[in-house]
């Protein structure tokens, strides 16, 4: 792949990824002859799985823009989808999803560790506060109120 190629997924990888991650169940035929209903359902399933579903058309366009997609997603891609454009856009979104999952899995141990450290810190701060209160009470008991 040259540095100017946009990463895409082959058709079989698209259907396999959708099935393996339980995003959607589609056939190669669905990508070869997409319909308005099938691509709308497909994009909705992908966005719902990624956790970003709002307004389908605008959400898909925003996601593709964020990914620096060289093609512009239009309403026509939902109303009268073309096989090559459908495969391209679905592949681009799935490529992003796979990359994101890989990166999230890579940093998951670190985030879990940092969460644990944060919880321990909160616990220790609470213990320090409790000990400071006990010191204050002991101080009052030993020296009385007059010496303060």
From TrEMBL:
Domain of life of the organism encoding this protein: Eukaryota
Sorted UniProt keywords: Cell cycle, Cell division, Centromere, Chromosome, Coiled coil, Mitosis
One Pfam match: Nuf2
Main subcellular localisation: nucleus
GO cellular component, one term: Ndc80 complex
Subcellular location: Chromosome, Centromere
Domain Kinetochore protein Nuf2 N-terminal: 4-60, 61-111
GO biological process: cell division
PANTHER family in the record: NT-3, PTHR48441
Protein family according to the UniProt entry: Belongs to the NUF2 family.
Protein name: Kinetochore protein Nuf2 N-terminal domain-containing protein
Organism: Capsicum baccatum (Peruvian pepper)
């Amino acid at each position: 792949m040259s540095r100017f190629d946009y990463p895409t997924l082959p058709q079989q990888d698209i259907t396999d990824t959708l099935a393996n991650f339980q995003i959607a169940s589609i056939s190669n035929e669905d990508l070869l002859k997409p319909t308005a209903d099938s691509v709308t359902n497909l994009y909705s399933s992908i966005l719902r799985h990624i956790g970003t579903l709002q307004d389908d058309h605008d959400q898909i366009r925003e996601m593709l823009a964020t990914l620096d997609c060289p093609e512009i997603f239009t309403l026509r891609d939902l109303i009268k989808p073309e096989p090559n454009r459908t495969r391209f856009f679905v592949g681009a979104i799935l490529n992003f999803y796979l990359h994101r999952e890989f990166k999230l899995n890579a940093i998951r141990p670190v985030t879990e560790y940092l969460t644990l450290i944060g919880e321990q810190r909160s616990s220790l701060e609470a213990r320090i506060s409790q000990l400071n209160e006990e010191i204050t009470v002991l101080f009052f008991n030993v020296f009385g109120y007059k010496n303060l």
